Amino acid sequence: MSQFNNVTITKEANIYFDGKVTSRTVFFVDGSKKTLGIMLPGAYDFNTDSKELMEILSGDLEIQLPGESWKKISGGESFEVPPNSNFKLKIHTVTDYCCSYL
What we know:
The chain has no helices and eleven strands. By secondary structure, the chain is mostly beta strands. The strands form two sheets. Strands 1, 2, 3, 4, 6, 9 and 11 form a seven-stranded antiparallel sheet that branches. It has a four-stranded antiparallel sheet with strand order 5-10-7-8, with no helix packed on it. The mean pLDDT is 97.
């Protein structure tokens, strides 16, 4: 899906890591939400509350999920992150992403 219809978007950006990771929150009529964002090259450590599906729209990175080794991910690929966990990213090129909260 290349676009979302009938949504509400929060104007204020979510800004992390001194502005190197930013996103906007998108709310759907069914109550679900996603974030659309950009990550600049760097190393980042994230925590989750809910299960997440991270769709990488473009870019190259590595991810380390809990208890797993580093894995390369490129644009067009996705991965799931368990709830209440921590994961690490090494962003190699500017990365465009969509995060769905499951």
